[in-house]
Amino acid sequence: MESSSSAAQGSSSSRKPVKQAKPATRRTGKPEVTAPGAKKPAGVAPGAKKAAPSTAKAPRAARSPRAKPEPPPVVVEVTSLRKTYGSTVAVDDIDLTVRRGSMFGVVGPNGAGKTTTLSMITGLLRPDSGTVLVAGSDVWRDPIAAKRVTGVLPDRMRLFDRLTGAQLLYYCGMLHGLDRSTASSRTEDLGVALGIEGSLNRPVRDYSIGMVKKISLAAAMIHSPRVLVLDEPFESVDPVSTSQAIDLLQRYTASGGTVLLSSHNMALVERVCDSVAVIVDGSVLAVGTLDEVRGKQSLEERFVELAGGRVAVEGLEWLTTFSD
Ligand SMILES: Nc1ncnc2c1ncn2[C@@H]1O[C@H](COP(=O)(O)OP(=O)(O)OP(=O)(O)O)[C@@H](O)[C@H]1O
């Protein structure tokens, strides 16, 4: 006998498999067999699936195709955040909401306020006003609780670069309260995962820019935080290492971790992020799921539109005269 779950997967039994796109519109006279399994939303947690075995008759309400799953809880909540430098308004009353399991991209032109925003979210920079809650803890009122659950890859980070990569990771692990053997084993794991295992015994000051990014990402992850805030994590990182790092981050979000990252690489944001905020001149001009923000355009086209379009380059004839 065919169960509803096998029907949803398109089993080869005599009954026709149910198409997932339009299960509710097909009235076969046996809706209780087909629609509920086929309608299962993609985002349902594995634990929830186990709780309702496919052979058991679910209550009517649970089988309603209209029943929506609860959205994941909010992990980062930014409210009315503002920062000025003299007369420059770097961040102008920004609100952001990031939910658990999300890979949330922050994009914007140079000087838009991305680094300033991320620095205030991680407690590296004090805002003029506004609040940031990370996993329910106020970053400025309860910084230890907020920082315990946050991993940070800041822009232009200063590292203890006389240490070897392994020493640096071990040190970061110890600062976060890991025991020695956990810090050591995680150092090895992260070295392999990010493709820097062969360089872990070299001083960080000898690393290339891309290698510094990778060791910094490893340092941000070593205490298995709930939230990763990564400022330009893939800048200067080669494509193979980028893919490896993305795999790692996707595994992290699939298991309930949350990533907030900034990037100028629209294709990459489009590839990895489920949600995005476009910041221009210190304000959020668009925010939502990737599809909500880009609409029918590519993210890059939408970004250029929001950022004020391209400026035609005029003059500069001297550039084509060549000095010789
Ligand atoms: N320490 C500072 N002192 C004065 N102005 C600053 C300082 N830090 C940032 N700013 C200004 O704040 C604004 C936002 O800068 P921010 O670094 O946040 O932008 P960004 O979006 O991260 O830019 P980029 O993409 O170039 O890294 C810019 O006008 C910048 O010049």
TrEMBL record:
Its main location: membrane. Residues 16-28 have a biased composition (Basic residues). One of its GO terms (cellular component) is plasma membrane. Residues 1-74 are annotated as: Disordered. It is found in: Cell membrane. GO terms for biological process: response to antibiotic. It is a peripheral membrane protein. Residues 1-14, 35-64 have a biased composition (Low complexity). PANTHER family: ABC TRANSPORTER ATP-BINDING PROTEIN, DOXORUBICIN RESISTANCE ATP-BINDING PROTEIN DRRA. This is ATP-binding cassette domain-containing protein.
